[in-house]
Amino acid sequence: MGFTSPWHWLILILVIVVLFGSKRLPDAARGLGRSMRIFKSEIKEMGNDGGTDSAQQPPQSAPPQISAAPTTQDDQAQSGYTQQGNQQQQPDQRA
Fold this sequence. Notes:
With 95 residues, the chain is mostly helical. The protein has a domain at 24-52. 58% of the residues lie in helices and 0% in strands. The longest helix has 33 residues, at 24-56. The radius of gyration is 35 Å and the shape is elongated.
């Protein structure tokens, strides 16, 4: 049967009026209308902006690749690193 019966609609409208009150219903409907209008205008703007943005933006080039220079044991010794886990050596601070 569903909500196709006029009695179901009448009961539903009566419940809404009782819950929200007759003074707040016009304000709620007005706010809903404004929200729908803003939503529709934003959707139209997104559709218009989507086509023009891709034509105006130049294609992005790939970032330059940085190749890592091979390190030798001498380079690691000078920088204070050992081969075991690249742990930094602490200088002996005994006086």
